[in-house]
Design brief:
There is one protein chain. This protein is mainly beta and 923 residues long. The protein contains seven helices and 53 strands. A hairpin with a 4-residue loop joins strand 3 and strand 4.
Length: 923
């Protein structure tokens, strides 16, 4: 299925963009004067972002950018005083003279707060915290950040696990590893991810979420989470927008390199895994200018072998008559190999003092090889704990390798004219997920030649961590024979191209410093999914499980049985027939083309900064897929298209009580389209004994719209220190959930008709508290002590419902993936030689999935989780560092349940992981 681009629509967008350019540049005349310079630290020239520079006489403020550069345009001739402000460094005050049509250059080299070591603002935990707090303090909107220090160190080796330390953020784990990020109670699908400011499409077939564990942290410099959007930002996030910034040669002067080698040990499988990474950057002189070309390069490779043990019911409990009785369950053993590799190449070129150009590239590849063994148990009659009864049992194997890739490349720049600053960029991003033909499911049933009645008498204890009691034959391979093998392959591609231009002009309104900014953007996105399924029921040779068995499974929750060799299973297949229906229903092609324009203004009135504006977005949507009618045995193509418009106003207010304390308030609006599985036009209609059942996506779903209010206060008392409190509220329209429309208007002939619908609304109310402090006032060696913590409290309500005898019945649920409480606590210490940290992360239970819209007892929740991690870094010399990490020290498990915590939906344990490595560096 190929996408057809509307030429007339693109012409109209080009005309609009050109009109904006002409309007923006009209009236440009020679300005008065200009002040520009850079803020750096130490003799190595470490660029400091987020430093405030103020012209006292004019009450004008600039903020240093990533390369430390700041600029004041259109400054009248005269004598002025510049003052710098950077958390962790002493303020510097300097007099300057500005002349008509001349540029005054003033560079500042900051040093650590008096009495502290110089490195406090460049290396170590405190340096990273300082960088983050300065970005947060100087921003016009509400954001939080995680920053690497001057030698590229993040506090965690996993990007998502670094983000979970921030207030309002928590993560979803996969096999114990942090993967997806939740922001302010909103699940990963409702948060945007960008790389160097460029939107990244998600590689997963069904969702919009981007798995951040795909991106190696060794290649990155900053992670910024924007919680209140400004009109110049894409409006596609309800919780927050996460920007991943890769390294740049202008982050520091001169030649820099870092080489890291690491080994990790998994306690569960007793496997050891290697990791290597290298980054380097340098500046070169091109033409007559000095150090105007920067080249940064990085490469990372990590292979981890680990596993987990699992017992789950999927919520298959019968709660009738006041007693819990188990209907079915599974024992599972996972053996996993994950490989992460990445490359980044960034070029920065400054052809003149007024123009900066860049080309930024990041490529990452994530391969997940999983062998899953399962004992699948279905009781003939549901059993209470301690009861015995007959059960059908299957041994199952899944063996698949999945590769996800993300590519982001952008070419752009900034040109500073006399009165205007023009930013421009063209970008391309692609993500993909490829799962070549694999054993999606090999089923071994009880051999009736060995077990005549094809059942076992089983019982169990403990309704949480369920333990099975079974006869010896249950575990013996000779009791089973190969019955069916399902082979599958999936390929998903998600591509996005975008072009944007932004125009900024500093103004003076009634004697007050002001700024006008406007711009346009056009983005085109195309996502396709291709699924192929084959079924094999004919096999060669002996099909007894003994022919495919290996060693005994090392299962931490009792006896399990033998391993199963996937290669031998595939070689036993005599013939496999493609399942045309299943291979077609999952296929789709979806396009989303978005054109946007915005205008915003900012004004400083004494200690107030007010920013307001509006963003307009138009999205043209198309969807193509397939429908299968089993009653008539017809397979047909489906298509759908629509167009939506949104006006999204915003207001941001910042009031500075002092240089250390400020109050913020914001009102913003945002919009997010439903997930791709929800929007898929695929439809499956089947008949079973006269009952007609259907399951389908809903491309007609409305986008989720959110009106957001934020209010809070921040106080920055000193080095690596902050105290903050923020309250937030989100009113969300068109919340999406899954329900059964069978028997309702339009679906009268269906006994079951499962699809996605828009709910009325959802509400989220929350409070974020955060504090950190470095005890610099204590005598040595205690002045290296660091303590930090944050807590977020969220309450949410969303209305869902279903039909009972044709009558709609509604009930309230919390937002899925939202913990009422999440918290972090960290205690650390660092000196010139050593840096250590003990950190705890907690999140309360949250709704995972609504299994039955009409039955609250079957809502699946994930239980509270508390994880304890430790890290230690020791500097052998200035250029050699050892590091040690211990993750999940308390062996925290993943546990989900239905009705209450007694009743298992899933129990999975992982064990601890230990890492030891060495880093060689020069900067």
């Amino acid at each position: 299925m190929k996408k057809t681009v509307s030429i007339s629509k693109n012409k109209n967008f080009v005309k609009t963009a050109l009109a904006v350019v002409v309007a923006g540049l009209a009236g440009t005349v020679l300005a008065d004067g200009r002040i520009e310079g850079q803020i750096k630290a130490t003799e190595q020239g470490i660029a400091l972002q987020g430093a405030k520079i103020r012209i006292l006489e004019l009450n004008r403020e600039a903020v240093s950018q990533r390369d430390g550069r700041f600029v004041f345009l259109d400054v009248k001739a005269g004598n002025y005083t510049l003052v710098t402000s950077y958390i962790g460094a002493d303020d510097i005050k300097r007099s300057v003279v500005v002349q008509d049509q001349q540029t005054t250059r003033e560079n500042f080299q900051l040093v650590g707060v008096s009495g502290l070591v110089e490195n406090v603002i460049v290396i170590g935990q405190a340096a990273g915290i300082n960088k983050s707090l300065n970005k947060q303090r100087s921003a016009d909107n509400i954001l939080t950040a995680v920053s690497a220090d001057a030698i590229g160190q993040f506090p965690d080796t996993n990007v998502s696990e670094s983000l979970q330390r921030l207030p309002g953020l928590s993560i979803e784990r996969d096999q114990g590893e942090g993967r997806y990020v939740r922001v302010r109670g909103m699940g990963p699908d409702y948060n945007a991810v960008t790389i160097n400011g460029v939107g990244v499409p998600g590689p997963d077939a069904d969702r919009r979420a981007v798995a951040l564990d795909v991106i190696p942290s060794d290649l990155l410099e900053n992670l910024t989470v924007t919680k209140s959007l400004t009109p110049d930002m894409d409006a596609n996030s309800l919780g927050g927008s996460i920007d991943v910034q890769s390294l740049s040669a202008f982050d520091r002067d001169g030649f820099f390199y870092q080489l890291t080698a690491e080994g990790s040990y998994d306690e569960n499988t007793e496997e050891t895994s290697p990791k290597v990474a290298a980054t380097a950057s340098n500046q070169f002189s091109l033409g007559g200018d000095e150090n105007n070309l920067g080249v940064a390069f990085g490469v990372s490779s990590f292979k981890r072998e680990f596993g987990s043990d699992n017992v789950e019911t999927g919520g298959a409990w019968d709660f009738e008559d006041g007693e819990a009785r188990l209907e079915e369950m599974e024992q599972r053993d996972y053996r996993i190999t994950r490989e992460r590799s990445g490359v980044t190449l960034n070029l920065d070129y400054k052809p003149s003092d007024d123009t900066d150009l860049y080309w930024r590239n990041l490529y990452s590849e994530y391969t997940d090889s999983e062998i899953r063994l399962a004992n699948v148990i279905e009781f003939e009659d549901a059993l209470a704990e301690g009861e015995g009864g007959s059960a059908e049992v299957q041994r199952e194997l899944k063996d698949r390798t999945e590769t996800q890739k993300i590519l982001s490349t952008s070419l752009g720049g900034q040109t500073r004219l006399d009165k205007w600053t023009v930013d421009y960029r063209v970008a391309y991003s692609k993500s993909s997920e490829d799962e070549p033909q694999n054993v999606a499911g090999a089923v071994f049933k009880i051999d009736d030649d060995v077990i005549a009645d094809e059942t076992f008498d089983l019982s169990y204890t403990n309704t949480g961590k369920i333990l099975i009691f079974a006869p010896a034959e249950y575990y013996q391979s000779a009791s089973y024979k190969l019955d069916e093998v399902e082979l599958g392959s999936t390929n998903t591609n998600d591509e996005s191209t975008a072009i944007n231009m932004d125009f900024t002009r500093d103004l003076e309104l009634a004697g007050n410093s002001a700024q006008l900014k406007f711009g346009v953007k056009h983005a085109e996105r195309e996502k396709d999914n291709d699924v192929d399924i084959w079924i094999a029921e004919d096999f060669t040779g002996d099909t007894s499980l003994t022919e495919f068995s290996g060693s005994e499974v090392d299962y931490q929750m009792g006896q399990f049985g033998s391993t199963i060799n996937a290669a031998q299973v595939k070689s036993a297949i005599e013939d496999a027939e493609e399942d045309e229906v299943e291979s077609s229903i999952g296929d789709y092609l979806i396009t989303e083309d978005t054109s946007a324009a915005y205008v915003m203004g900012r004004v400083d009135i004494n200690d107030w900064r007010i920013l307001t504006g509006v963003r307009y977005e138009n999205t043209d949507f198309t969807a193509q897929g397939n429908s299968y009618d089993g009653e008539n045995e017809e397979l047909n193509a489906q298509s759908f298209e629509n167009s939506d418009d949104y006006f999204l106003p915003a207001l941001h207010i910042r009031y500075s009580i002092s240089d250390k304390t400020q109050v913020r308030a914001a009102w913003t609006n945002s919009v997010v389209r439903p997930g791709f599985a929800q929007l898929s036009p695929g439809r499956l209609i089947e008949e079973d004994d006269g009952d007609i059942e259907a399951e389908f996506g809903n491309p007609g779903l409305k986008s989720l719209e959110s009106s957001n209010i934020d209010f809070g206060i921040e106080h920055y008392p000193g080095v690596a220190s902050v105290i903050s409190a923020f309250a937030f509220y989100k009113a969300i329209d068109n919340f999406v959930y899954q329900t059964d429309l069978g028997g309702t208007a339009g679906y009268e002939d269906f006994d079951k008709s499962v699809t996605f619908v828009n709910g009325d609304k959802a509400d989220i109310l929350g409070l974020e508290l955060a504090a950190s402090k470095q005890f610099t006032s204590l005598p040595s060696p205690w002045d290296g002590l660091l303590i930090g913590g944050n807590a977020t409290f969220v309450d949410s309500t969303a209305e869902i419902g279903g039909y009972d005898d044709g009558e709609f019945v509604a009930r309230d649920i919390p937002m899925p993936s939202q913990s009422d409480t999440s918290a972090n606590f960290m205690i650390g210490y660092e000196s010139d030689k050593i840096s250590m940290r003990l950190s705890a992360n907690y999140k309360s239970n949250y709704l995972l999935e609504v299994l039955e819209p009409m039955e609250a007892d079957y809502d699946a929740y994930v239980d509270d989780q508390m994880q304890l991690d430790f890290s230690l870094r020791y500097y052998l010399t200035e250029s050699i560092k050892l590091h040690f990490e211990a993750l999940n020290l308390t062996d925290e498990v993943y546990y989900s349940y239905v009705k209450d915590t007694q009743y298992n939906a899933q129990y999975e344990s992982y064990g601890a992981t230990y890492k030891l490595g060495i880093t060689f560096m020069q900067f």
